[in-house]
Amino acid sequence: MRNLIPLLRLEGLAIGLAAIAAYAILEKSWTLFAILILAPDVAIAGYAFGRRIGAIVYNATHSYLGPAAVGATSWYAGWSGAAAQVLIWIAHIGLDRAIGYGLKHRSGFKATHLSSPV
Prior knowledge:
This protein is mostly helical. The chain contains five helices and two strands. A two-stranded antiparallel sheet has the order 1-2. Helix 4 (about 65-75) packs antiparallel against helix 5. The longest helix is centred in the N-terminal third of the chain and has 22 residues, at about 5-25.
């Protein structure tokens, strides 16, 4: 598994940069981008309720499933307003993965799918 970590980090970088490029194409506010890029990290507050709850809350906001669900739902509903926020969310996750922050194991905040042997 360890030999796959650099590949997973590069994959995160590619996804993060692609999301930023797509955001640029939308020509939305970079002030909005700056305000929201760290918003998913508010989920770290879940650790106030213990490692198990913290990992669940953190992973819920740092999995691509969340932005995929919001993006698909908003597309289906015909609401294009969510595209910018979804791309910012994806950029956050990708860049987090690029620098080594991954999905958390219950054993602790520093134990991630990018740092711990499985």
